[in-house]
Hints:
Elements: E1 7-17, H1 20-35, E2 48-59, E3 64-68, H2 75-83, E4 90-95, E5 99-102, H3 115-125, H4 130-144, H5 159-172, E6 177-180, H6 189-204, E7 208-212, H7 216-222, E8 225-230, E9 233-239, H8 240-254, E10 268-277, E11 289-297, E12 301-311, E13 317-329, E14 332-340, E15 348-358, E16 364-368, E17 375-379, H9 387-392
Parallel strand pairs: 3-7, 3-8, 5-6, 6-7
Antiparallel strand pairs: 1-2, 1-4, 8-9, 10-11, 11-14, 12-13, 12-15, 15-16, 15-17
Amino acid sequence: MSGGRVLSVSGLSKKFAADLRRSLGYGLRDIARELGGRRGAPGLRSGEFWALQDLSFQVAPGEALAIVGHNGAGKSTLLKILYGLLKPDGGEVRLRGQAQAIIELGTGFNGLLSGRENVAVGAALHGLAAAEAKRLLDEVVDFAELEKFIDAPVQSYSSGMKARLAYALSAHLKPDLLLVDEVLAVGDIAFQRKCMNHMRRYLEGGGALLFVSHNTYQIQTLCSRGLLLERGRIVFEGSAVDTLSHSFERRALVEPRGARSLTSAGSIAVTGIEAAPAEGDEIRTGSAMRVSVRYRAAEPLDVIWGFSIWSNDQWVCIAGDTDVRPRRIAPGEGVFTCTVPKLPLVGGRYVMRAGILDAATGQALATLGIYDAPEPLLVREPPSAQGNFKAALNQLVNIDIDWD
Length: 404
């Protein structure tokens, strides 16, 4: 392994068979081949597909790498191979030091044993002396806040309690590489924040992190780099922010605009949303912006409409409003419009969502950007001495201030 790398992955590939019986048969043949000193079949056999194909990347001490992609892209398979739960069909994984994984709830736990006993088993498997095992138990119980339940069987734990125990145990074993899957999503907000702060300190101490999550806020907070996976291949590699932006752009290409906007009766769909400057060629901070929402209706309806502006990671709703005045629309195509007289957004990239609701009940009849890709919004801001401060603070909006 090259100097300064905790993890080096080269040409990593993994294939599966969709049919269980065929998968078991291929597995037996591969075992027989290996026992005979031969390698397994290099290509795909009938019914097989590549879950991962030709992945190469490295992770250095103190570095957090985000693994981004839709469900089924191969993220969890990658983590399981790195942790040794799955054997790759090709390529090489080189790890310097020890790895711990938080991949699936309950993985590595014996449900019949108590939380205390499972921690003791973990300590024994890592060869900790009695004093170290006692210190580990104290740290895990304190961090997971499970004092009242540590002697209860793990099978009686809720999903959130299992997540607490899993993270606390894996993290406090002080690995060189920590593999974290979406499992933290089941924890409450306070515990997620606690884990995030712990991971920051872990990285500052020289630990390395592979982070799989759909939570774009957590990815941007923790990770400096990202990999975007699609169908088991790396399709983009760059900064965490660029990887997320690339993911949103690719999602917009494959998800037809308005494809999921129809109601069950197919009565109305949002076909597009557009933002444009009221004057000039660019949408600018502090200037007027026109918003247009296009629709297609199959029958007369009484509706209200609205839109919202979100941060580019789709994590924070910054602003928006709904025109609650009922209006009757006729069958066919139409457009709703409004004006934002003085746009408060600082310069940057955002996204927009829109919805048309039933006037009587407030029930959403059609949406854009909630179940499909949102509309990008680029805002320009004149250069100023304040710009660097805004960027450093991740500021999203301007407010008028009279400085004394």
